[in-house]
């Protein structure tokens, strides 16, 4: 099931464009720059179109970014944005449903969730920071 709060445009086949992602990537980046670690891997839960992850990776190249998404069209979009930008610090997107008991992410140093919380129907489980770090 796909849940979107707005219509998306499409660039060159697979890249989806969200108007709100374009509008808010700058302010979100400013906040993240003040709270993320100096190095390590950052998990983005529910990466949506992929616009945020490539912007964050470009602005914060000292971090490795792991995008995730459950929507297959968005997974293709994330991969297309990543290929288009050619950023070495963006890992291939992983299929992730937050309701799954086991997440395929491995240990991470930080996690961000921008595209899901405000549209989540009823999250059954929220991962703790300790679980994400592999502790």
Describe this structure in words.
- It contains 4 helices and 6 strands, in the order ββαβαβαββα.
- The chain is of the alpha/beta class and 135 residues long.
- The protein has one domain (9-133): Rossmann fold (3-Layer(aba) Sandwich).
- The strands form 2 sheets. Strands 5-4-3-6 form a 4-stranded parallel β-sheet.
- Helix 3 links the parallel strand 4 (63-69) and strand 5 (94-95).
- Helix 1 (19-35) packs parallel to helix 2.
- The chain is globular and about 35 Å long.
- It starts with 8 loop residues before the first strand and ends with a helix.
In short:
The protein is of the alpha/beta class and 135 residues long. The protein is built from four helices and six strands; from the N terminus they run ββαβαβαββα. Helix 1 runs parallel beside helix 2.
